[in-house]
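help with this.
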Amino acid sequence: MRKSIKFWICFAVAVTGAIYFTTRIVMIAGGRGDLARVRTISISADHTPHDLSPIAAATGVAPGTSGFRTDLDAINARIGAVPGVKHSAVRRRADGNLTVRVALHRAIAQWTDGDRYFPLSADGTIIRSPATTRTPGAVLMRGDVPDNLTEIVRVAAAMGDALDWMEWIENRRWNLHTTGGITVMLPQTDPAAAISTLMILDKNNAILSRDLRVIDMRDTARILVR
């Protein structure tokens, strides 16, 4: 008798719980109830510091919006259009709230159109968030850029104030333009080594302070000046 009573009590509790949770699930899926509403949007980036407020604004989801009726593809598209965003992923949590994960371009140099200065990432992406002034100490580039800038920027940065700007010539080699008005024509093969050689020459012979127009380093066997 006791076992029978316990069975029916447990059965009644199980049925009641099933009805309750089924009702909650139906309400959430239908966009009703607190759990179906977006109360928080958590945003994280693959590196900091970065101002995440434009990304938050790009989600376009107001508090109280039904989390299960939001278009995640549309949100991703808007976030992807934010300058500096490389990739994004939006996830809907079980409680209806949203999590946003973004991968950002890492600016290592600047690119200029002659009037404005744009952050330039290591993969050659010009980030469309320009400034009106050049960042002190930044390596500056003009024109086309290749898709791998890490090594050339690292070596060129060692020139410091002697370097004015750089340009990618015929999609195969670099020219350097110094603050003294000299054009340095780098070789297609191992331009980083050529810059190191140039810096040694300048240290020993002050070559970048001379009255020169061109230093031609394209022939690795000899350096021509004029």
